[in-house]
Specification:
This protein has about 200 residues and is α/β, with parallel strands linked by helices. The chain contains 5 helices and 5 strands, in the order E-H-E-H-E-H-E-H-E-H. The protein is globular and about 45 Å long.
């Protein structure tokens, strides 16, 4: 076996982030990567899954069979058990491969900031996000006709160059890559003041 995809996009399927990834990020990034890459680049995103498949099993299979994880970080990302499982699967893979350490600081996760930054997971706050799309996070298709879309496209071009370099250094696929199961997050407890 080997990798099936070069990049797995991990994001929270909210009313804004989902359409932004589907309408803008995923298609534009795939186009820009394939303009500069020696080999065709495959990007997996959950909206590309076939209807009728076992959704959890297919998602986990594609995490395991992807070279890099592109995370779209927002406060909401870290409240999703599935997003956390995808991210932690790659963090465990990095540990297995001796990546993202003091000696070898490069990892297999390419985080981008969609929104916030103050309410990220503690481990994420230690990670430098690669690109900041927080001022370019318009989900509607009409975004393509605005001047800000040119800024978005410039950032996508930079990201494509970064990812092409990262893809060239990804270790070979291994059957023992770990897959983290989604773990229910602890409920937020709001204490009532004592009167």
């Amino acid at each position: 076996m080997s990798y099936e995809h070069d990049i797995f996009i991990s994001y929270r399927r909210s009313d804004t982030i989902g359409p932004w990834v589907k309408n803008h990020l995923a298609p534009r990034l795939e186009l820009r990567l394939n303009e500069i890459s020696a080999n065709p680049v495959s990007i997996f995103c959950d909206f590309k899954m076939s209807e009728g498949v076992n959704w959890p099993a297919e998602l986990k299979r594609n995490v395991k069979r992807s070279r890099l994880l592109l995370t779209i970080w927002s406060a909401d990302y870290f409240r999703s058990t599935w997003c956390m499982a995808e991210w932690q699967s790659f963090r465990q893979r990095e540990a297995l491969l001796g990546l993202f350490t003091n000696e070898n600081p490069q990892g297999l996760v390419y985080p981008v900031r969609y929104a916030d930054g103050n309410h990220f997971h503690a481990d994420a706050k230690l990670t430098q996000w690669r690109k900041d799309f927080s001022t370019l996070s318009y989900p509607d298709e009409s975004f393509r006709t605005t001047a800000k879309y040119l800024e978005f496209d410039d950032l996508i071009r930079e990201m494509a160059r970064d990812l092409e370099v990262l893809l060239s250094s990804v270790p070979s696929w291994r059957d023992d890559f770990p897959i983290q199961e989604p773990v229910p997050l602890a409920p937020v407890v709001h204490e009532r003041p004592v009167i």
